[in-house]
Amino acid sequence: MKGSAPEAPPAPAPERSGSSYAAFWEETGAHFPSLKGAASTAYYFECERTLFADFGARLGGARVLKTDLWDEAKNTEILRWAAEQGARPYGVDISFSIVREARALLWPHRPGCVVGDVRALPFPTGVFDLVYSMGTVEHFPETEVAVREIYRVLRPGGLAIVGVPNRLDPFLRPALVGLMRLADRYPYGMEKSYTAGALRRMLAAAGFEVTRTSGILFMPGWLRMLDLWLHTRRSRLAALSGWLVQPFAWAYRRFPAVRRYGYLIAAAAIKPGGPGGSPA
Fold it and tell me: Which of 113, 127, 164, 212 is the most exposed place for a label (fewest CB within 10 A)?
């Protein structure tokens, strides 16, 4: 789940793949407004940093692959943050426009950013210490193929952090997305959601050892969408939605138990076989 747009282009059919799927994301990436600076984007960024800390990700000197570069071009810039902590940043995205924007952002850190598909990652086997995939693999039918690719490129003992939409979101975001798709108002096309148990099982089926689950963005999906719409379309009113976001950000910090109820759930998964099975 990339974020939510104030204006949604027509969504691709669920069965789209190959060149038409790439064309959809190229068009979206070229014209989508930046979500940077929105209150909910700052909250998203805080959640991601908390997730790295809670999952014990060690970034200094680690080769870190991100399975899309949307956040670098449009959203939280989490891979730049990882690079500032000493990681060596790599990324892949199906959109050339997104890769170009991400490269410009990450250029001081000598990034390895390429155009490619997470279902067929253009990297050798076992080369990354950490793979970060948040809101990527749910946007096409072959999710399990993408998860196996994440497993393939990770070194033995390496850590994958995989996040997908939460089917049990208490604020019913999957239902909202479904209604928006029926109205052709959801900008990200197909989007599946999972329970924490289903995410664990999918990762285990690929060979991972799942060590922990958590979540990010404990807040109503409609509030995220409203905040982004105001940020990009009615900036003078954005303080209103920003004020509404703050209680959820406070609860996320103060009460770790609510994190599992975020509208994205996330799992820490280790590829067996490394020294002591330790993460990156």
Answer: 212
